Amino acid sequence: MTTSAVDVSTAAERADIDEHAELLPELVAHLREHRSELREEWSTRINAAHLLAAMTPQEITSETQSVYDNYVEVLETGSVEALQRYARDLSERIIPRGVETHEVVGIVLLLRDVLARSLFKKYQQDFALLNRVLDAYEPAANRIANTVAVSFVDERERVIRDQQDAIRELSTPVLQVRERLLILPIIGVLDNQRASQLTEQLLHGIRTHRAKVVVIDITGVADVDEPVANHLVKTVDASRLMGASVIITGLSSEIAQTLVMIGVDLNKMNTIGDLQGGIEEAERLLGFKVTKSAES
Amino acid sequence: MLVSILRQGDFLIASIHTALDDAELLKFQQDVVTKIGEHRSRGVIIDVAALDVLDSFGSLTLRNLAHIARLRGSATVLVGIQPDVAFAIVQLGMNVDVHTALDLEEGLEMMEQLTGGRRAGRSSLAVLRDLP
After folding, report:
1. Which pLDDT score is estimated for A84?
2. Complex ipTM above 0.85?
3. CA A5 – CA A11 distance, rounded (Å)
4. A2-168: CATH superfamily
5. Domains observed in chain B
6. Which residues partner with B16 through β-bridges?
7. Does A241 touch chain B (CB under 8 A)?
8. CATH 1.10.490.70 domain residues, chain A
9. Which of A129, A191, A212, A281 is the most buried (most CB within 10 A)?
10. What does the alpha-carbon distance between residue B62 and residue A102 come to, in Å, rounded to a whole number?
11. CB A234 to CB B101 under 8 A?
12. d(CA A190, CA B130)
């Protein structure tokens, strides 16, 4: 009993697939035939919706041509690989121009709409056939929209990842300014991850440079949250265990308030108003004396 | 050999060469404290440069050792703490309130400052006044 039911359903499905296979070439032929007018209409709709404002009309024309041809090709072959490659390539070109995700998704959905409307028009006499055509068209069209959107977002995320890596590498320089004196200028947002990276680089820097005094300048940090402030205090402590004293300079009023709020032992924290004062104090600790030469 | 305790003038140089378990740590502490009395040392330098890890018991023992040595009239400097060890100690919230220096060389220099130079007539009690 059950086997026969299964047989029926698979037979029906097979018939379905066969029908799609029959209908799709017809559909593709139709889209190829009306290529220029459909593409024209699509471009008009893109302009009307104010999408792709960052691109010139010529660029839009050439890109819409490629997208259209790729689109029809996917309908014909059922393979999204070429489209995927094209979409990634396109994203690489247009992301730096400031094209947004909603615009890319928007133009693909517009094309889907334009083509569907032309199908409505063509098959309006035969409602049953129109239904079957849409059954064949919709899944493929959805898959295309999906592929383009995912490729675009993937490319975007790749760009963001690359930039994050670059920022991470640049973000915490440990510089030697005098024998056994290091400075760490910190600029920007100090989050948890960056704070632990800072600690690691500082502690290893102390060892490699045999530092005795470290000046951490946080003039460029507007505010920190409690965990990061605690981390900063721990870093100072750990540096002391390695035989280096830490001077913190350029504390903003917000950070100073945070430190007091979390109840930091202020005897452990050596803070000085600005970087200049910090370096002068460090030089004093190390026994350096900076004097102006007589000529100047 | 797990540890060595060498005499260097008025100072003792105690080096830990490998990770010690709790019993070995306590024996090390006992040995150092005994030697301070034997040699009438005015300072102990504990070198932990060979240790990649130091657990809470280890750091507590070293801290206790420093305090015991102080009571026996000897200053203590802990040298050679590795970066990861240093951060682990503060991460665990352990209060290691002893003098520290980067390595043995720095430690000896610091010890001479703390004790006012070798054989100088300064009382070892002066050490008590300038703890961190």
Report:
1. 84
2. no
3. 10
4. Histidine kinase N-terminal domain (1.10.490.70)
5. 3-130 (3.30.750.24)
6. B3
7. yes
8. 2-168
9. A212
10. 62
11. no
12. 35
